[in-house]
Design goal:
Keywords: FAD, Flavoprotein, Oxidoreductase
Number of domains: 4
Number of strands: 16
Cofactor: FAD
CATH class of the largest domain: Alpha Beta
Bound molecules: (2R)-2-hydroxypentanedioic acid, zinc ion
Low-confidence stretches: none
Protein name: FAD-binding oxidoreductase
Distance between the termini: 28 Å
Strand order of the largest sheet: 13-10-12-11-15-16-14
Number of helices: 16
Radius of gyration: 23 Å
CATH architecture of the largest domain: 2-Layer Sandwich
Organism: Thermomonas fusca
Family: Belongs to the FAD-binding oxidoreductase/transferase type 4 family.
Shape: globular
CATH topology of the largest domain: Uridine Diphospho-n-acetylenolpyruvylglucosamine Reductase, domain 3
Largest sheet: 7 strands, antiparallel
Length: 461
């Protein structure tokens, strides 16, 4: 540790855990994107808000960039430190600080994993309803910094809906308490919402007060097989009209093929082109309603088969078919797109993009899946064995450009729930106007005047 800047940090905070071993730099310097070579100067693991503030002040004085770091499960390169930045990991700040039964809120340190938030809510007879497959590894601070969505947005909305307050150490080292758990507050700009989805570019989220809600009612999971993607939104409408949907997720036969190759048992004897995993509140009425919805769709040729869970274990098994997609593709290091359009625009968007990719890039294997009930598609592109990595990335970037044009035409977004980070930075201007980006830059300059917070993410300095 010969760097004089690090020596000065050590002198400033002698108790601070500071990691400099190559294995630690590698571990903490990357997220799940695996595209950049990690090269942070060091990894700091503060234990208190005061330490975080002191580190930010030091970074301003020394001109060091800070990459805030949660569970690093992100897929857009938002937590990558490839340019000598200091990684500031919230890993040691993982406590539950308070539960308030009257407010129905849980106040936590930002490094707590999502799963522990969900468990703690359950222990109090309540629910924190945001959920997704990386629940055990991701942290609540990262969820807020990307406004993470997940599998139950159709019923409960994105992370943004569940944040009653945020404590933010801004890029200039100020501690701001935003939102403060108030249900109503119309006293000017709501800066809490700027912290949400800011991807660590404005400051470091150190604590959050989360809203909780009634525990979930019993639910059922159904897997539907569909003959065509035109049927998708009609099936969605038919099921939504009769049932209280909690999830409506879609995958193609190609996605299922990878999940089955990964070890999951096949759900049907025969393969089908498209599948939907849907979860809905179950009560006495829902049994008849689900049969009616299914019968109606069958009659209209919108579904070809279906299986409904008869136990919690079967429900979990059906969910695995959707949730295991990302891990089943991980060994290919796919190029990922995470896009959204209005739900009503989804059929046209999907048809157009599928035709475009099939026509222009028939050599690429494209895996489609996602939160179709929210208008959110995940498009994973796999590298053919024979193709060089550079050529693959170049092709994928061309694909993303084409995709961005289609998205622009449909008024969509280039990042639905994964953030912009490094991966989508070149395409931000396709779906956000020049005036919007200028306003974002102005906000960054106000909260992070020296540009030390997550430099190079979202947009260039
Ligand atoms: C999901 O919905 C995640 O499973 C990951 O957002 C999506 O791997 C992906 O592209
Ligand atoms: Zn997703």
């Amino acid at each position: 540790m010969s760097d004089a800047r690090l020596e000065s940090l050590r002198a400033l905070l002698p108790e601070l855990r500071l990691l400099v071993e190559p294995a630690d730099l590698e571990h903490y310097g990357r997220d799940w994107t695996r595209r950049w070579t990690p090269a942070p100067m060091a990894v700091a693991l503060p234990a208190s808000v005061e330490d975080v503030q002191a580190i930010v002040c030091w970074a301003n004085a020394k001109g060091v960039g800070i990459v805030p770091s949660g569970g690093r499960t992100g897929l857009s390169g938002g937590a990558v430190a490839a340019n000598g930045e200091l990684v500031l990991s919230l890993e040691r700040m993982h406590k539950v600080l308070a539960f308030d039964a009257v407010d129905r809120t849980l106040t936590v340190q930002a490094g707590i994993p999502l799963q522990r938030v969900q468990e703690t809510a359950r222990e109090h007879g309540l629910q924190y309803p945001v959920d997704f497959a990386s629940r055990g590894s991701c942290s609540i601070g990262g969820n807020i910094a990307t406004n993470a969505g997940g599998i139950r947005v159709v019923r409960y909305g994105n992370t943004r809906e569940w944040v009653a307050g945020v404590k933010l150490v801004t890029g200039s080292g100020e501690l701001m308490e935003l939102g403060r758990g108030l249900v109503k507050d119309s006293s000017g700009y709501d800066l809490r919402h700027l912290a949400i989805a800011s991807e660590g570019t404005l400051g470091i989220i150190v604590e959050a007060t989360l809203k909780l809600t009634d525990p979930p009612s019993p639910s059922n999971v159904m897997l539907l097989a569909l003959p065509s993607f035109e049927a998708l939104m009609q099936v969605f409408a038919a099921f939504r009209a009769r049932l209280q949907l909690q999830a409506f997720e879609f995958l193609t036969d190609v996605a299922l093929k990878h999940v089955l190759a990964h070890g999951e048992p096949p759900p049907f004897e025969q393969a089908h082109p498209y599948y939907v995993v849907t979860e809905f509140a179950s009560d006495e009425a829902s049994e008849a309603e689900v049969l009616a919805a299914f019968g109606q769709c069958l009659e209209q040729g919108l579904v070809s088969d279906g299986v409904i869970s008869a136990s919690d274990a079967q429900a979990a098994q059906l969910w695995r078919l959707r949730e295991a997609i990302t891990e089943s593709l991980a060994r290919y290091v796919p190029y990922k797109n995470d896009v959204s359009v209005r739900i009503s625009a989804m059929p046209a968007f999907l048809a157009e993009t599928q035709a475009l990719l099939g026509r222009e890039y028939p050599q690429l294997e494209v895996v489609w899946f996602g939160h179709i009930g929210d208008g959110n598609l995940h498009i994973n592109i796999l590298k053919p064995d024979a193709m060089a990595q550079d050529a693959f990335v170049a092709d994928c970037e061309r694909v993303t450009k084409l995709l961005a044009q289609v998205l622009e035409a449909h008024g969509g977004s280039i990042s639905a729930e994964h953030g912009i980070g490094l991966v989508k930075k070149p395409y931000l201007s396709c779906t956000r106007s020049a005036a919007e980006i200028a306003a974002m830059r102005g906000i960054k300059a106000a909260l992070d005047p020296n540009g030390i917070m997550n430099p190079g993410k979202l947009f260039d300095a």
